[in-house]
Amino acid sequence: MALSPYIDAFADYLRTGDARGMNDFCVNAEHMKRLSVYRNGFYKGCVDALAANFPVCEKLIGRETFKRIACVYVDHFPPGQGTLVGYGQRFPGFLSDFIAAIEAPPETVTLSPALVDLARLDYAWLTSLMSADATQTLTAEKISWLVEGGHDFTQAVVTLNTSVVLLRVNPGTLNQWIGLKTDSGIAEPVENSAVEEELHSISELTRADSAVAVDTVMFWRVQGAVQARSLSAPEIALMATLQGEGGILERAFDAALAVDPDFDVSDVFSACLQNEILEIDMAKYNDKH
Amino acid sequence: MEWVLLKVHECNPPRQSLIAGAHLGAGLGLKAEHLDDILALPVEEAICTGNSLWFEVHTENYFVAGGPRLNYLRSIRENYDLSFHGVGGSLGYDHQSMPEHIQQVKALINEFQPTLISEHAVWSRSGGAYFADLMPLPRTRDALQSLVEGIDRYQSGIGRRILIENPTNYLDFISEMDEPQFLVEAAQRSGCGLLIDINNLYLSSKNTGIDATEYLSQIPAELVGEIHMAGYDPDPELGQALLIDSHAADIDGPVWALLEHALSLFGHRPVLIERDANIPPFAELMRERQTAQGYLDQCSGHTAVANGFQKEAR
After folding, report:
1. Which of B88, B123, B172 faces A27 most closely, judged by CB atoms?
2. B244-253: which pairs have CB atoms within 8 A and are 24 or more residues apart?
3. What is the count of residue pairs from A and B with beta carbons less than 8 Å apart?
4. Do A85 and B64 touch (CB under 8 A)?
5. What InterPro entries does UniProt report for this protein, alphabetically (chain B) (predicted)?
6. Residue in A with minimal Cα distance to B102
7. For residue range A151-187, what is the model confidence (pLDDT) as tens digits?
8. Tens digit of pLDDT for each residue in B142-187?
9. Inter-chain CB proximity A27 and B66 less than 8 Å
10. B67 and A27: CB-CB below 8 Å?
């Protein structure tokens, strides 16, 4: 017996619940209903993974509602890799479509539009948590070393470390997310406005229409724990210069001061060092010594 | 949390051997909630005596670029042997996306040097979808060929021999051979070993009517590199007519009895206590682990198989 027809029929059953294709492969027709063990296991594994990856969403809408929505997501976007780590990358976008769909009659279920932003925050937190460990963290010691070597450290090219994740959300959503995440009370969310769903480059964020009220949130990991905070406009400008391939520190400082001449650059720079947010490639300096 | 730095074992077990865990006793599935308890354990002094505590992890749970999850595992590896147990390799079918998967497994193996590496004789991927559970293969020549190819690719990719685990059977599919024949031929053709899950075997015997004792008698001892033990639950609808491999309950008496019989046939082998749901306090799992260790000690004491096993491993 060839394997492929069996696998095709089994996969079809797992995706649709229609077991008729398995008739030819099961020895005892009375045992066909036992196939549900495998389908239940598939859905349970995926739904549990989504619940683990989107814990604040689950907390907001409750286990049963989350499970129902998650099952629909699994139908549309089953895992593609042989792991459930990080499963749900498209879940925030899916939720947006799902909420729009159920707003149309005759659906009676309503979900908070804030759920989409909460899902994006959940996934950003997860992305930061699982990101690569920093290997070239810029520290006060490295700066001292550069200064002692006669280098102007403000001319050094610096990048954001890989755990830094930036995204825009509706005002108040971060507080709501933190409240749910830490069980410290739920801040009231502000009404949803047209916030784009993807993670953004900060350059885009700084050019964003100021008429649309949004918060720019930064996640980063330090000492194994993920941190989160809203960025001010000059902080956004500073980070924008250092994003991607990185930038010269002085230009980052200038960009921040252009937004707010009273901005305390040294204060924020110290905080960046303490939080191990910045990276520097010391190789070119070592070569010159 | 305070990090505890302790001396790393220097047992130097035969890591490339088919049966690589001669010094391992009973082990536990590693759970994040037990990390502090594990790190607080005194370091074992006795090694290479067949009673070392060890831990098994699901390999794919560590497919991350960095962060605390890997650091936790590093802290455990400082003092204990590890076993990497794959659940997403889909050895039985759809090998096209295997290289990327294997690359991640190999990177983990290179860093953590697990003593044991295992996977399942099942499929879980088809048509670009991963079905996130252990799907049964029909025991046919075509399926056997596909499984052997999958094992070959996996072993070649990671540069190590693996063990493959017998599945839990809930119903019978069309087959051309029984399960021991299927697994033994897969092992002999691919050069892999076998991981015998005693709970899976017990449930298969209850669900499909096979004779577990007869099954074990068909497995050559030299192929067996690890044994799994776990608890089960009755199906919510069908009750005792269908027993589910839940890993959510204590190990049942008949499963312990079957372990004792398996050890009498195979000799001393690393025995793992699996618990993946309804997880009890660490001390409770350690009591189950101690029961398993008792069976291993009894096996070694009565039959002196452990010595023979070490020779075999060389």
Report:
1. B172
2. B244/A37, B244/B170, B244/B203, B245/B168, B245/B199, B245/B200, B245/B203, B246/B277, B247/B274, B247/B275, B247/B276, B247/B277, B248/B275, B248/B276, B248/B277, B248/B278, B249/B278, B250/B288, B251/B199, B251/B288, B251/B291, B252/B202
3. 139
4. yes
5. MbnB/TglH/ChrH, Xyl_isomerase-like_sf
6. A82
7. 999 999 999 999 999 999 999 999 999 999 998 765 4
8. 999 999 999 999 999 999 999 999 999 999 999 999 999 999 999 9
9. no
10. no
